[in-house]
Amino acid sequence: MVAFTPEERFVGDAAKFQISSNPLNTAFDMKRLIGRRYTDSSVQADMKLWPFRVVSQKNDKPMIEVNYKVQKKLFAPEEISSMVLMKVKTTAEQYLESEVKNAVITVPAYFSDSQRKMTKDAGRIAGLNVMRIINEPTAAAMTYGFGRAEEEKKHILVFDLGGGTFDVSIVVVQKRKFEVKAVGGEAHLGGEDFDNRMLDYCVQHFNKLYSPNLCVNAKALRRLRSECERAKRNLSSVVETVIDIDGLYEGYDFFLKIRRAKFEELNFDLFEKCMEVVKRCVAGCKLRSKSQIEDIVLVGGSSRIPKVQEMVRDFFVGKELCRAVNPDEAVAYGAALQAAVLNKEDVHIVMVDVTPLSLGISVSNGVMLVVVPRNTALPTRKETSVTTAYDDQTSVAFLVHEGERPLVADNDLLGKFVLRGIPAAPARVPSIKVCFEVDADGILNVSVHDRGSGARNAITISNEGGRLSIQEIDKMIADAEKFCKEDEEAREKHVAKNALECYVSNMKKRAMKAKSEDSMDADVAEDLISTITAVEEWLKDNDTVTVVELQDKLKELELKCLCLSSPKRFKFI
């Protein structure tokens, strides 16, 4: 979460604390926006719920529009994500007392090729060398398996239900080797959706009681959403809670008791959707029986919901759920383990991930020819052969798609390019080799080669779906450094201003106390109080003062107070 104000920028908790008063300029949920097109149905649905504004730019790219320092600004989702990463980087550097250059970033298992590449772009903008992109449930499995010495193969299922996405992975663990066998998920299902159901219910309740339409007020909706999220968390440990907001909208208070059973009723279809993903994942793993799953690891804050846990237990016929890992920390811990491996530290782990979605090309009649089936172990290289469709065809257009539907129109287009220079020949005579390579990050490269003429081409999916150009990324890197410098200056200003305000307040109290107790000459006391009051007025009238001016004013006041409060003239009690 990142917030923009007329004076500065806030990231993380600082942004969350002010969102109720500044909802239009607070951006969040970037996982649901990064790597997507503005016209995507999921983006359009989310835009109805987000308080901040999303606009369309070139290549159908969504951009976040905010007012920052009294100017209208547009930020790409990668740019907002990079601000969060930069905050994490700065926090780590302060703790480690050394520079952080490299990173392992986790993403939902069902992230597309475009989403993965744009996540790497976000890391680069933040000044990080992204060494590896790994799937979140895979990272959680590494956390589960680290420290265990399983001699026999053990199948575990990772159920990762977070704030915005849902993933399921089946992983075989043996002697610190982690081999992903199947993945499933929904890139648009998580705690935010449960909050939305609660919010809709509360809005209907309010609008039924009072005439004002709550939906038209972004600030009121944000306050109500925050309380719905709090109530959702409470209902994981109690059977009933209260949503109580004074003066929610146009002077009307809001009060509602909500029971866990009602929350479960509002979200039951979403919980069932989670279980459908689990069923598909188990089927895709081709196990003899679901009883072969020996452990179920719950990850993500929403996995704490009692009804979700009950449905998972019931599906696996009463099997106990593993509570050996912290749902909030498991993914980050697994990423740290992967970083240790890449850093060649003494951590012996082997991790084999898989492709979450099938990859292929469009052939005749709009059918998708799958080249890399889903759940293929990574990294991988797969080849297939195609030919021409009509006589004397000298070029072939290749459209690369990702998805599980038989027709390419129903799958995501990753990119397109043309192979030219094919010698004229009857239809179906030329032999063209198509090669798909997917690296350990799950990122795709495609090349084609006409065996007859030697003509070659390769796809660079750099600008499909609105991906940033190298020049745009470089500009954002420069902007990020500028924002970081501005943030540091704002922080230093806050520190300096707070120091001066505290000193002014303390000295004024002491001077007034000394005056009232006659421990100081009245004229001296009045002189001191007048000096301090003048500084108070100076602070009120000078919003744009610099750090140096604040520090100088503090030194000046300290000197005056020291002179005026010398032992000969001023004795503090």
TrEMBL record:
GO terms for molecular function: ATP binding; ATP-dependent protein folding chaperone. PROSITE patterns: HSP70_2, HSP70_3. InterPro entries: ATPase_NBD (IPR043129), Heat_shock_70_CS (IPR018181), HSP70_C_sf (IPR029048), HSP70_peptide-bd_sf (IPR029047), Hsp_70_fam (IPR013126). Keywords: ATP-binding, Nucleotide-binding. The keyword ATP-binding applies. It comes from the Eukaryota. Belongs to the heat shock protein 70 family. PANTHER family: HEAT SHOCK PROTEIN 70KDA. This is Heat shock protein 70. It comes from Cryptomeria japonica (Japanese cedar).
